[in-house]
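Before anything else, study the sequence and fold tokens given here and see whether the fold suits the sequence. Record follows:
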Amino acid sequence: MKRLFLTSSFSSVAKLFEDFADEPVKGKKLAFIPTASLVEKVRFYVDDDRKAFEKLGLIIEELEVSTATTEEIATALERNDYIFISGGNTFYLMQELKKKGADKLLIEQINNGKLYIGTSAGSIIASPNIEFVSDMDETKKAPELTDYSGLHLVDFCFLPHYLNFPYKEVTQKIVNEYSQKVDLRPISNNQVITILGNEIKTLEKPKRATKK
């Protein structure tokens, strides 16, 4: 049974993760893949997510796909309880996964029931195709990528950071352009899409009470 926890920002919705995992997560081992962020100048979100996992008590094993061998990737994905892929450039991430055959390894692990957590780019790649984010991520950062197919873990296209700074205008542009062409699911940084078998839910971090 597929178990996917797809976020725009894991650190923003980390409190929802334990309920979804439906087991004590403290002491669980996590394959942490930061590859998408390597070509980005801004990378604070990777550290934010790492700290959020550490706060939950997970044991983190960093797995850099671009420098690891296919065998090393396969072994790391197998021995860890959960798999996480960070945000960054979606096209670069997909390029590196395909170069190492890690895309097929991920699909196999996830189809066999391993819990997968994605943030931003790491969630977008679960889509059937990633071309719809070409206005948000630079395709030129992945010069070797000729095929924009995603992992196709879900039948919809995941759009992160909907109406969040600094992506407010570009995410609305993507919605305007693609919402009639594909099954587009935009979510904000405070939301998560969970997949448990055939059950798909969109959850939101509880808001603090504020005066109107």
Notes: Helices lie at 10-13, 17-21, 44-55, 70-79, 90-100, 102-111, 121-124, 168-178. The beta strands are 3-7, 29-33, 59-62, 82-85, 115-119, 157-159, 184-186, 191-196, 199-204.
